[in-house]
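Researcher: We plan to redesign the surface later, but first we want a full-length starting point. Tokens attached.
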């Protein structure tokens, strides 16, 4: 049986199909990327004290101001961001592990600067409680101020305490007041030998300062008004660490005052030590960290090269699929319409099945019936039929002998030869 192949029109618009494929591919790649980076949902604006928090204790205003000033600001959920060569802003909560905070700081000493803001307020999300219907997501209600215990267990031990009511702060050539002068967190300068004050209260309580060790920090020392030491005996490739003990100098609560906003910006730029560095607000200490998985590894070196090659190969395969050679081919009917085609297909089937010898007897009977009708005979025997054929076509061979020869034929060539001889007799009688 033969199968015809004919060209058919494409039922789909190639441009629409290409658009759907590209959209699906981009959506799939975006899904992989966000899974790998850990951005799979969850609102970071939960009222906590971190770079994405928009409540009083958060630092979203600081991040927004830095971005508006042209700095490259990132809110990171990845542990890998702790190794950034830019400025890292750490905002550990009250429940932070001091060993993890210490490790995060020490691992960066030769990589980039660090700004650590201590927690102070115990706050709850402002839902109901007399706030009315104007409460927005992330708003908090301040309950009380506390001091973090982990601050005293760092390599640079801090001893924050809630000081008495004061009239304001002074530092970095600026002055101002605190949003809640009755709840100020700082440390007496005499108990902080490892911290050089940068901002103090007017009565001497240290609110912010940088850690002093065997590093050489001329920019920080100049801002604090102290001697930086001899660079020949100090490590010049170390980066400084600034501790902000009073978070109201930099949080959204403090940004209600322009002077405190200016001071916060000055502390950030001072932490960069004269460099123009990107700023990363870490969110992992605040519970938004994401652990590495196979997708994360796929988009990080050295596996990134293999991932890009795989993506490129997918694009090539897709392009070749749309740019195939010629129109699409549709398979035709196995058995075409018409008697002639039906006969040819049937004959081809018999020939392929090697049962040609089964046709010799039926073909002989059909020929005998046709010859009988041509001679107008009614059920004659072989002698009568041979006599009638001989009278009508004297040159024709004996009809009955030809019929028997066809019935006895076995091989295809013999069957065709005897059938042709019988057909020749029929043609002689038809003239």
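Model: Full-length starting sequence:
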């Amino acid at each position: 049986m033969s199968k015809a192949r004919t060209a058919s029109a494409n039922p789909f618009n190639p441009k629409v199909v290409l658009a759907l494929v590209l959209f699906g591919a981009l959506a799939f790649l975006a899904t992989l990327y966000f899974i790998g980076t850990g951005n799979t949902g969850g609102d970071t604006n939960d009222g906590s004290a971190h770079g994405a928090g928009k409540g009083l204790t958060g630092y979203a205003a600081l991040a927004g101001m830095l971005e508006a000033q042209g700095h490259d600001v990132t809110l990171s959920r990845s542990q890998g961001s702790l190794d950034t060569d830019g400025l890292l802003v750490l905002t550990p909560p009250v429940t932070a592990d001091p060993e993890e905070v210490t490790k995060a700081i020490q691992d960066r000493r030769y990589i980039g600067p660090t700004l650590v803001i201590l927690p102070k307020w115990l706050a709850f999300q402002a839902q109901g409680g007399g706030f009315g219907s104007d409460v927005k997501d992330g708003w908090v209600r301040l309950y009380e101020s506390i001091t973090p215990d982990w601050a005293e267990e760092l390599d640079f031990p801090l001893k924050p305490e809630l000081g008495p009511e004061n009239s304001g702060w002074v530092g970095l050539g600026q002055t101002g007041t605190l949003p809640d002068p009755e709840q100020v967190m700082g440390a007496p300068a005499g108990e902080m030998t490892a911290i050089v004050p940068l901002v103090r209260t007017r009565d001497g309580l240290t609110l912010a300062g940088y850690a002093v060790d065997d590093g050489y920090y001329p920019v920080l020392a100049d801002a604090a008004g102290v001697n930086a030491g001899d660079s020949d005996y100090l490590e010049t490739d170390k980066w400084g660490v600034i501790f902000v003990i009073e978070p109201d100098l930099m949080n959204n609560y403090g940004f209600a005052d322009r002077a405190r906003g200016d001071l916060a910006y000055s502390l950030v730029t001072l932490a960069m030590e004269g460099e123009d560095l990107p700023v990363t607000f870490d969110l992992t200490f605040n519970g938004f960290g994401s652990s590495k998985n196979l997708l994360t590894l796929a988009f990080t070196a050295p596996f990134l090269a293999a991932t890009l090659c795989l993506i490129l190969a997918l694009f090539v395969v897709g392009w070749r699929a749309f740019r195939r050679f010629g129109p699409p081919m549709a398979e035709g009917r196995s058995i075409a319409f018409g008697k002639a085609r039906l006969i040819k297909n049937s004959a081809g089937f018999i020939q392929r099945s090697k049962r040609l010898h089964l046709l010799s007897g039926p073909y002989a009977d059909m020929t005998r019936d046709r010859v009988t009708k041509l001679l107008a005979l009614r059920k004659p025997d072989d002698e009568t039929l041979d006599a009638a054929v001989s009278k009508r076509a004297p040159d024709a061979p004996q009809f009955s002998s030809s019929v028997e020869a066809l019935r006895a034929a076995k091989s295809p060539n013999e069957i065709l030869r005897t059938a042709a001889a019988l057909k020749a007799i029929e043609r002689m009688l038809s003239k």
